[in-house]
Amino acid sequence: MNWLTPINPPFLARCLRRLMVNNRRCRIIVNSVESKEKWLETLRVKDYGNIHFIPDSYDSRIGFQKPYRRETVYCFTGGENNRDWKFLMKLAERLPETEFVCAAYETYFKQQVNHLPGNVSVYYSLPAEEYYALMKGATIILLPLRDDRVSGLINITHAAQYGQVCISTRTKATELYYREDLGRFLPERDPGKWVETLSYLIHCSNDEFVSVASGFQDYIRHQFNPEEIAKELSKVIGGKEFE
């Protein structure tokens, strides 16, 4: 069973999950070490060894595209869970010459945004094919997150596969997907730091952009290979009952 990061689960849900943790036949998967720690804390149980960290892999169906700088420069942000749309608007206001394209769930977006800057376009509830087409056409992918919940990892791996660079909020989960020397693309929740990082990618030379994107892509390719991750998952599923 795959568990996401807990968000104040109700009493009954906590009781049911405690039963699962105590079940010797139950194997629980989380995609962040932090999620495991959070569940143990939330459920107030010991680590019985049946909550396993298995990271998200890249998508083997779409392959890897050679990095290059797109002729039409725009930044893409998409998704529903935990996106910080208000923060993104602050970036758009500080970079009026840069186009921002958003793919969002309308209710969540409008809960955070009252005024739309002129350089921002929003598309609501897009089919997956159209969502990824918009994403693939972007120069830079942005992943501003509201809190430390595990969110948006698929956008990070897809960006690498499309030959792009993804700037993401730094969390314990997202930093696993960036080589140490690419840590500058995981800025804290400070608009000034994001503007600085984004401006660098927009204005750097083509060679610099390709070098950064290639390093990012190579790391994802080697560290998050679905075949290797599937082997780890197979070991978890086929493992002996924990003592």
Could you explain how this protein is built, in words?
The protein has 243 residues and is an alpha/beta fold. Helix content is 42%, strand content 12%. The protein has helices at residues 11-22, 33-43, 85-94, 106-112, 128-137, 153-161, 191-203, 206-223, 226-237; strands at 28-30, 51-53, 74-78, 99-104, 120-124, 140-143, 165-168. The strands form two sheets. It has a five-stranded parallel β-sheet with strand order 5-4-3-6-7, with helices on both faces. Strand 1 (28-30), helix 2 and strand 2 (51-53) form a beta-alpha-beta unit. The protein starts with 10 loop residues before the first helix and ends in a 6-residue tail after the last helix.
Strand order of the largest sheet: 5-4-3-6-7
Radius of gyration: 19 Å
Q: Roughly what is the average pLDDT, rounded to an integer?
A: 90
- What structural class do helix, strand and pairing data support? alpha/beta
User: Share of helix among residues?
Assistant: 40-55%
Q: Tally the beta strands.
A: 7
Percent range for β-strand residues: 5-15%
Mass-distribution shape: globular
